[in-house]
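Tokens in:
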């Protein structure tokens, strides 16, 4: 298990300007970012044993983070 936070800059390299623009213009996207950061922080605290949680809970959080990341990626993908 990695205990390195999955920052949005690492997950979406080169897209931070677009992320920032969407955050300002779209409240739903801004909420996605807040949700991602919250879940990501919980996972990081669990991984570093600052706030240990059960393996099942950690797995559920990881799945939620992935689902949110997929929604962010979809919002960043231009419509063809």
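Residues out:
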């Amino acid at each position: 298990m990695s205990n390195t936070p999955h920052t949005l800059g690492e997950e979406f390299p080169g897209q931070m300007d677009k992320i920032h623009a969407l955050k300002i213009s779209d409240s739903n996207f801004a909420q996605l970012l807040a949700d991602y950061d919250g879940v990501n922080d919980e996972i990081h605290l669990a991984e570093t044993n600052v706030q240990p949680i059960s393996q099942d809970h950690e797995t559920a959080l990881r799945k939620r983070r992935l689902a949110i990341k997929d929604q962010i990626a979809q919002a960043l993908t231009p419509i063809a």
